[in-house]
Amino acid sequence: MKKAVSLILSAVLILCVSSVAFAGDAGCGCGFSPVIYVGPLGCTPIVKDAGKDSEQTLWKIDTKFLLSKLGEAMPGISRALLTRDADLLGSAIAGFVKDCFGDLALDSEGNSKPDVTTPELNIPQGDRHGPDSDYYFDYDFRLDPYEHADRLHEFIDKVKALTGHDSVKLKCSSMGGVVLSAYLDKYGYDGIDVIICRCCPLLGTAVAGEAFCGKIELNSTSLTRYGEDAIPFLETGFADDFIEGTLYALLDTLKVTGVIDGICALGDRLITKAGKKVFDEALIPIFGTLPGIWAFVPEEYFDEAVDFMKLPETGGLHDKVFAYRKAMANIKNNLRSAKDSGVKTCIICGYNVQRTPLVTLWKSTSDGTVDTKYASLGAVCGDVKEPLTNDYLKSLKNGDYLSPDNMIDASSCALPECTWFVRNWLHCNGNAGIDRLFNLVMTADEVSVTSFEEFPQFLEADDDADTVYPVTGAPDDASNLREHPSYLNFIRYIFSLIKSFFERFG
Ligand SMILES: [Zn+2]
User: Fold this and answer.
1) How much is the average pLDDT of 281-291?
2) Ion ligand 1: residues, CB < 5 A
3) To the nearest 10°, the Cα dihedral for 41, 141, 208, 280?
4) Distance, CA 443 to ligand 1 centroid (Å)?
């Protein structure tokens, strides 16, 4: 009997000890696992000669440094433009790019120069966590995404130990999705309970694909629209509404009078000739050595880009660039399995913003930086500012995932039931409405595009009001102004009037 009692007692003792050892949540008990924010490109400074007198921030490049180098380059660039000398122009621009960004280049093994470092990288500290507090994971964007995956793995372990939780939430912004892709491919989704992808180039971005294939062109429509869409957000400050309005007006006047077409025609010829020199002397030797930038190249551009960017056929750099192709190829399946195993998942992307000009694929609808089809893992999209074609719409068997403005069909996405689309949302622009959706995603028992009445699958961003509304139909600048009166919506309305006037009578 005594023996039986002592056996039971020791069993109870072992159970007590092991429950303390294994049940991490017992360490906190708040019910909200910590959030790790996986930041975008450029989330930490890259510095040359850190701590020395000669210290120089290479990224984000110091404006004063950039302007001083531009000042040195301007006489050459001006002379080249005046004489339309493509060779001189190419050399002047290549020299300027090398002066500003040359030290960012990696070696043939894909490693940084020893004197170029990221001295401010975060290490998780403290146990503060909750819906309004996250741990910021930053990284050197140039390097192999799998190096970041390894560091993120350690980072997650540290956060778990600090907070006493046995799982974390990953909120990834833009390039953070590249880190996530490598992470899921190498480590899986154990110990992750929420994944949020905000404007992430999960399947790349056309601007990287086209740039790495040398497909550069100036196009007047894209240039004008880019000005209209992006300028309001490039600067913030007191006098901006006035400046924005003036720039809008200037761009549209130049467009209507054909001046931009003239500049583009001239620019295009020069760009083709000078561009080759800039690529050969600066862009390929610098940006062609960065596995992090290679991770933005979509699959359909990759083979041509390897050739055009003269990627070495062997060595560490080659291996790192090729290794990430597996992470990109597997991201759809990896997210699908995570979701099917109970990881609450939210992929959210912008559409209907004019993407960066200078590339031939300027009609691809996007958030201005990342194409909607790549960020959404496979939506079929109309051209920017256009609905899907009539033929496509007719061929649709059901419209369950069709946007009310007929611009997006999400049925072909990897996770159509967990992918949100925000019309007119500029890449990663802060928006309190979208943050509210994230809070719901992080706290709800079930997450899908039908879970939250306020946040259906298709939303429209109103950045002035700092919120989002459900999309109910095609963009209509007049009713938009009536419902959400703001200076920007007024400008949009005025220009829609001018455009329709010229379309009719111009
Ligand atoms: Zn807690």
Assistant:
1) 93
2) 28, 30
3) 130
4) 13
| Res 17 pLDDT > 60 | no
Question: Cα(27) to centroid of ligand 1, in Å?
Answer: 8
Q: Are 412 and 383 in contact (CB under 8 A)?
A: no
Report the alpha-carbon distance of residue 183 to residue 427 in Å, rounded. Answer: 23
Burial 168-185 (b: 16+ CB within 10 A, else e): bbbbbbbbbbbbbbbbbb
Question: pTM of the full predicted structure?
Answer: 0.84
Residue 296 near residue 427, CB atoms below 8 Å? no
Q: Domain map of the chain by residue range?
A: 35-43+120-207+321-475, 46-117+213-287
Cis amide linkage into residue 60, ω under 30° from 0: yes
Architecture of domain 35-43+120-207+321-475: 3-Layer(aba) Sandwich (3.40)
Strand partners, 422: 350, 459
- Tokens for 413, please give them: 């996405």
Between CA 143 and CA 111, with CA 274 as vertex, the angle to 5 degrees is 15
The residues pairing with 224 across neighbouring beta strands, listed in sequence order, are none
What are the angstrom distances between the C-alpha of 496 and each of 173, 356, 486? 32, 21, 15
Q: Are strands 419-423 and 458-462 parallel, antiparallel or unpaired?
A: parallel
Q: What is the pLDDT of residues 225-234, one digit of tens each?
A: 666 665 554 4
pLDDT above 70 covers a percentage of the chain that reads 78
Q: What is the DSSP string of 128-154?
A: --BTTBEEEE---TTS-HHHHHHHHHH
| Strand 467-470 relative to strand 458-462, pairing | antiparallel
- State the virtual CA torsion across 427, 428, 430, 433 in degrees, nearest 10: 90
Question: What's residue 67's pLDDT?
Answer: 77
Q: What is the whole-number distance in angstroms between the Cα of residue 32 and the centre of ligand 1?
A: 5
